[in-house]
Write a structure and sequence with these properties.
Class_I_gatase-like, ThuA-like, alpha/beta, globular, Rossmann fold, ThuA domain-containing protein, about 325 residues, signal, 2 domains, three-stranded antiparallel sheet, 7 helices, single chain, binds zinc ion
Length: about 325
């Protein structure tokens, strides 16, 4: 069943335009006299720019500028000042997953300082996934992990169904159990409804940079991306369910390997299934019933012998743009 509970949907205020177009409507005669050939157009606003005191945006077709003070906390117009709480392990577990979490902590904190949001990191302490703590946050971020206890899962469900924002990375979509039985620990709301991918089905190896196809630009997360871009190195996942057949799901980015351009470079001849040579793999998607976005990104290339770091997820400018645009869009309720 499709849930539409975006109580934080706050795109209700129409921008007030002090433009030639507005002047033309208000003062047609004066306008005609002063500006013969005066044309009206609906402004094509660029992204909000933010500073501590105000926000502004500029029309991409004319010089019109809309500028104003922040409204509310976070700002209902531009999202300035939102608060994000992230979970994930920075040591132990898969070394490349932990490495990503450490890198993410630095990147999100720096972006928060630059763009005006608060980034708090809870580590693996999922006991903080409770109603009282979540009431102080606008967004939750899962870095390669997700809650394992039922009470924490239920608090997360309430947060999302109440209009909270979420972005999840890479292995956070793992069900952690082979079974599909709730009694055996399968979180069916998360796997089947919210993420809608079901269980993990396959992966590539080694982590490789791949061309990613932007499936739609008609989404806040992809509006500033080119049609195709080269990712940072990552381990790519395939899933149990065909996300393209789910009408609640908007597939944002796909990986489309071919015989000429396979994904993965597994040198072990006994593991040919870890090199993909065909197919159409959703690697980032949104469930339109929630303020959520999942992305496969979050596995850095590194040696498992000496744990030497060999790549950075946030070295790819398009991925950085995608994640930052996603965060503001999700907080503003899409
Ligand atoms: Zn304009
Ligand atoms: Zn603002
Ligand atoms: Zn991984």
């Amino acid at each position: 069943m499709k849930k539409k509970t975006q109580t934080k949907k706050i795109h209700t205020k129409k921008p007030r335009l002090f433009s030639l177009a507005a002047l033309c409507v208000a003062l047609p005669i004066a306008c005609m006299a002063a500006f013969s050939g005066c044309e009206t157009h609906t402004h094509t606003w660029g992204d909000w720019q933010r500073s501590e005191g105000e926000h502004w945006r500029v029309c991409e077709e004319c010089d019109a500028e809309e500028r104003g003070a922040h409204t509310g906390e976070p700002c209902a117009d531009c999202g300035y000042g939102f608060k994000a709480l992230a979970f994930g392990f920075t040591e132990g577990g898969d070394a490349a997953h932990a490495d990503f979490a450490r890198e993410a902590n630095e990147w999100f904190a720096a972006q928060g300082e630059e763009n005006g949001f608060t980034y708090d990191f809870a580590g693996s302490d999922f006991s903080l996934l409770n109603d009282d703590t979540l009431a102080g946050y606008d967004m939750v971020i899962f870095l390669n992990d997700r809650p394992h206890e039922r009470s924490q899962q239920e608090a997360f469900e309430r947060f999302m169904e109440g209009g909270g924002a979420w972005i999840g990375f890479h292995a956070c979509a793992f069900s952690m159990v082979d079974s599909k039985e709730e009694s055996e620990g399968y979180w069916s709301w998360y796997q089947d409804d919210f993420l809608a991918c079901g269980n993990y089905a396959r992966n590539t190896w080694n982590p490789t940079s791949e061309p990613l196809t932007v499936e739609t630009h008609d989404h806040f997360s992809t509006k500033n991306l080119p049609d195709v871009f080269d990712s940072a190195p990552c381990e790519w996942y395939g899933w149990e369910y065909d996300l393209t057949q789910n009408e609640d799901i908007t597939v944002l980015l796909t990986l489309n390997p071919t015989e000429e351009n396979p994904a993965g470079d597994q040198p072990d001849p006994n593991k040919p299934h870890e090199i993909w040579r065909e197919g159409h793999y959703p690697i980032a998607w949104a469930n339109d019933g929630y303020n959520m976005l999942y992305t496969n990104m979050g596995h850095n290339l590194q040696s498992y012998n000496d744990f030497e770091k060999e790549s950075e997820t946030f070295s790819c400018p398009e991925q950085c743009r995608f994640i930052l645009d996603a965060m503001y869009g999700l907080v503003l309720g899409g």
